[in-house]
Amino acid sequence: MSRFMADCRRWPSDINCSLVIIGEEDEVLRAAAEHAASAHGHEDTPELRQQLREFLEPAEAYTPGPRAQEPLPG
Ligand SMILES: [Zn+2]
User: Fold this and answer.
1) Which H or E run includes 57?
2) Ligand 1: distance of its center to the CA of 19 in Å?
3) Residue 23 belongs to a domain
4) How many domains does the chain divide into?
5) 70 CA → ligand 1 middle, Å
């Protein structure tokens, strides 16, 4: 089963978050939604999880160094 990554370093945030979550899709979505709620003040809703699903990248894309930030879409 392929693994996915949710990388907080990719997005601007007021806490300059460096968390990277890697695992199977459902694991990453659950952890990322809980993280978005607990650390970034988002509401853990189906819409949030849908948006997080679109942000997932293949785990192979992981790099340990800093990465360029992208503006949050929409
Ligand atoms: Zn974060």
Assistant:
1) strand 57-58
2) 5
3) yes
4) 1
5) 14
The DSSP secondary structure of 24-60, one letter per residue, reads: EHHHHHHHHHHHHHHHH-----HHHHHHHHHH-EEGG
pTM of the predicted protein model: 0.90
Per-residue pLDDT in tens (0 to 9) along the chain, 74 residues? 799 999 999 998 889 899 999 999 999 999 999 999 999 999 999 999 999 999 999 999 999 988 999 998 76
Tell whether 51 is covered by a domain.
yes
CA of 38 to the centre of ligand 1 (A): 9
Distance from the alpha carbon of residue 61 to the mean position of ligand 1, in angstroms? 18
Separation of 51 CA from ligand 1 center, angstroms?
Answer: 14
